[in-house]
Amino acid sequence: MRILLVLVISLVLGSCSSQVKESKIEQQRNSSGATSTVKKRVKPEFNGQYYFVQGEDGPVIVVNKKYPLSADFAPGEDPIAGVAFEDLIKDMESKGFQVSHDYSGYRSYGQQKTLYEAYVARDGQEAADRYSARPGYSEHQTGLTFDVKDVSGQLLEEKEASQWLLDHAAEYGFVVRYPKGKEEVTGYMPESWHLRYIGREAQQISSKGLTLEEYYGFEGGDYADERIFEKEK
User: Fold this and answer.
1) Intra-chain end-to-end CA distance of the chain, in Å
2) Is 97 within 8 Å of 160 (Cβ atoms)?
3) Geometric angle at alpha carbon 62, from 183 and 142, rounded to 5°
4) Taking the CB of residue 3, how many other CB atoms lie within 10 A of it?
5) From the centroid of its chain, how far is CA 27?
6) Which residues 6+ apart lie within 8 Å of 105 measured at CB?
7) H-assigned helices in the chain
8) Are 207 and 176 in contact (CB under 8 A)?
9) Where are the chain's structural domains?
10) Residue 200 and residue 69: Cα distance in Å, rounded?
11) Domain 49-232's class?
């Protein structure tokens, strides 16, 4: 009789434990939708000049602190992205936002090297790495990235305009690449002005509130080591 009672108790406890685990999983799914929207980890392919993953409309260039570009990759500004950006700026102007047609767009490897080294000299490498990419690691080198400026020539930080970009940039094919609360994922502090052109898939990415790392499933975060690559050559 005692053995039978022990077996019954064990079965009941096992059932309860299973239900608790299932409940926790369901809560995690419902809390942010991350279980159903964040893709499994993938490793980008490398074609000799840049890393990429497959998007719905073709290859998507991957650039972050884990995946650099070749130093000789110099595509210039992407013309399709450039037209989309001009359309976005015109529409922002029509809505009363004080934005400029002047912007920070394509940068070569050499230009990024000069800029990054100036920031390191001014603020130190640790601080510079939070807001500026090392040469070869900048999205600006792809020709697909645009920094929005206000009419005074400063990077756009005005609250309402920044929120408009979060809400509507995807309609023009862009994502806000470095949103708030995602520094551990992207490797950079928030930049409300930094737009990356993706194309039609940008709307899916934006609607789910994900970074490119989270949406496509590739690794993000900080550099793999502490070297300043160019200075070692």
Assistant:
1) 79
2) yes
3) 105
4) 7
5) 26
6) 77, 82, 85, 140, 143, 145, 146, 147
7) 2-32, 34-37, 79-94, 109-123, 125-131, 159-168, 183-186, 202-207, 212-216
8) no
9) 1-31, 49-232
10) 24
11) alpha beta
3-class SS at 197? strand
Q: How many other C-beta atoms can be found within 10 angstroms of the C-beta atom of residue 13? A: 10
Per residue in 18-60, pLDDT tens? 444 444 434 443 444 443 455 678 999 999 999 999 999 999 9
Q: What H or E segment, with its residue span, contains residue 170? A: none
Q: Which residues are catalytic?
A: 191
Query: CB atoms < 10 A from the CB of 132, how many?
Result: 19
Whether residue 215 contacts residue 39, with contact meaning beta carbons closer than 8 Å, is answered with yes
Given a cut of 80, whether residue 226 has pLDDT beyond it is: no
Structure tokens at 126: 């640790």
The C-alpha atoms of residue 95 and residue 156 are separated, in whole angstroms, by 15
In the 8-state DSSP scheme, what is residue 46? E
State pLDDT tens for residues 111-140. 999 999 999 999 999 999 999 999 999 999
- Nearest by Cα to 229 from 154, 133, 144: 133
